[in-house]
Amino acid sequence: MNCIEAEMLIAAMVDSELSDLERDATESHVKNCLRCQYIYKAEQELKRQVRLTGSRITAPADLKEKILSDPRIFPGMAESPRGWKGLFRPVRVVFRPAFALAFLVLLVLPTFYLMWPTAQSVSLAALETHEQILAGDIPFIRSGTQDEVRERLYRSVEKRFAPMGYDLSPVGLRAVGGLVHEVASQRILVTVYEGRGPSLSCFTFLDTDGGAPPNAHLFFDPEKKMSFYTFSNGRTNGVMQRVAGRVCILVSKMPMQELLALARSFAQPS
User: Of 164, 264, 262, nearest to 221 (Cα)?
Assistant: First the structure.
């Protein structure tokens, strides 16, 4: 089995839809293929996030009732003793634009709510992702050295871009592993640092115009002639910078001033 064949079966394997023969062959390939391991873990995380998001969705209780009871959309609904049966009899249905709109809302609204979280900026998603990594909800592949972490992540995106190679050993942190995360179709390389003090995650992705959240604070370093964006969700802090076509976001629960000082100190990749 090659990577192309495995990729076509990984999603079905996550959903337990493969035959025993297909599952054994796919598992054997994934076990020995780093690239497909990342894809498999990404599919697992996607399914987990869909379930988590679905459990959080609560549409207004009166929304459906208001739509179905509106006489402009369903004329005669309240007076008809047959209710829905009478409405859907071919001789009674008048297919009005409002009728079509009502059903479009009922069908599309849940999907809209499910898709909404993916529209959030990568920077805000990075804060949540770091918290999930700390909680063990998002697994990552551990490696022996920082060079191994970097090489694994670099190969996982077909060497299109490399993770920021910060050496944080002077502050007691070292790269212990990483993963590939995806937000709004944006592939992100995540390097996880552990050691003395709070853990830190470094998110690297290709430069886009939508990286910084609208409420981020801009800090310009006149010495290095670089701009940094700081933001927080109240529990976790983030510092973002753009370097040579890439965006780097450092995320940690350490105080913002310490995290910003750290980002400024190691602004240039090692």
Answer: 264
Residue with tokens 């079966």: 9
pTM over 0.85: no
Could you list the beta-strand ranges (E) of 87-211: 141-142, 173-183, 186-195, 200-206
160 token code pair? 């299109």
pLDDT along the chain (270 residues), means of 10: 82 87 89 81 77 64 66 56 44 43 44 39 88 93 90 92 89 94 86 94 83 79 88 93 89 95 74
3-state secondary structure 182-242: EECCEEEEEEEEEECCCCEEEEEEECCCCCCCCCCEEEEECCCCEEEEEEECCCCEEEEEE
Q: Can you tell me the distance from the alpha carbon of 99 to that of 102, in angstroms, rounded to the nearest whole number? A: 5
DSSP 64: H
